[in-house]
Amino acid sequence: MDGRTLQYGRRGQRGVNVITAVAMIGCHAGAVAALFFVDRGAIIAAVLLYCVAGMLGIGMCYHRLLTHRAYKTYNSIEYLLTWCGTLALEGGPIFWVATHRIHHQHSDVEGDPHTPREGTWWAHMGWILTGEGLHHDAAVLARYVPDLVRDPVQVALSRWHWTSNVIVGLALLAYGGVPYVLWGIFFRATVGLHATWLVNSATHKWGSRRFETRDDSTNNWWVALLTFGEGWHNNHHAHPTSARHGLAWYEVDVNWIGIRTLQALGLAWDIKRPRLTRANAA
User: Fold this and answer.
1) Using CA atoms, how far apart are residues 116 and 218, in angstroms rounded to an integer?
2) Is residue 258 helix, strand or coil?
3) Nearest to residue 248, comparing CAs of 230, 235, 263, 264?
């Protein structure tokens, strides 16, 4: 394996990623500022956009569709969901998917971009600010996301991923002014970022384990609530290509409900599910 794919974690640090750090500081500052401009309509807009970005975009698309190909859909639906994912401010689909596929290949061992074995802060946010995980070169991307780098639409969505929030932000500004922008862009994106990062940190440290996997993944109910079902992480690591993560009746998985809704509308098919024993399904 090309050694460049293993330069992650603390050994791969090269100082602060300035552009990323500035963006994160600005996003968090805007989120704090939103608290001084409380507006019911702006908060409702933020909640709706949180669902669009976090559920349709990250959970249903970036993760279960693009990374693991847990189901199939029409190209037009895939591109629309991908655009929703860019609203999460977690980078373009090519970089997100490459990083997550690397995480699964090296989960909680050398080469994992964000294992808590390097520290909880590192797993949660440090790897974004100082790690190499978002700086793959073309050779690494081609290896881990050949399906996406061959797709000119996904390449364009990755290159211009930041434009979605500019477009939505301008629309919010025109409709409701500064409070709508602060809540609908900055506050919503900041909460969404931390929710996603909790899957990297919290669900590899705290929770229960239904399956014996080679990593430290756990099922964490409160992370699942924040991420529409992504917190059932031990289930996911045991069955990574499954479109369903909540395997028991009490494991609420809104992303799975969304995928089943697409299926009911004739917009999703070849949906992958795990084969469970009675003990594991309880």
Assistant:
1) 12
2) helix
3) 235
Cα 129 to Cα 108, 121, 134, 162, 275: the distances in Å are: 19, 11, 10, 18, 39
Of residues 7 and 232, the one with the higher pLDDT is: 232
Helices marked H in the chain: 18-34, 40-51, 75-86, 93-105, 120-121, 127-130, 138-144, 146-149, 152-159, 163-176, 178-181, 188-201, 221-226, 233-238, 254-264, 278-281
- Nearest by Cα to 226 from 259, 191, 260: 191
- Cβ(45)–Cβ(180) under 8 Å? yes
Q: What is the tens place of the pLDDT at every residue in 135-177?
A: 666 677 778 999 999 999 999 999 999 999 999 999 999 999 9
pLDDT at 206 over 70: yes
Instruction: Give the 3-state secondary structure of residue 271.
Output: coil
pLDDT tier at 281 (50, 70, 90 boundaries)?
low
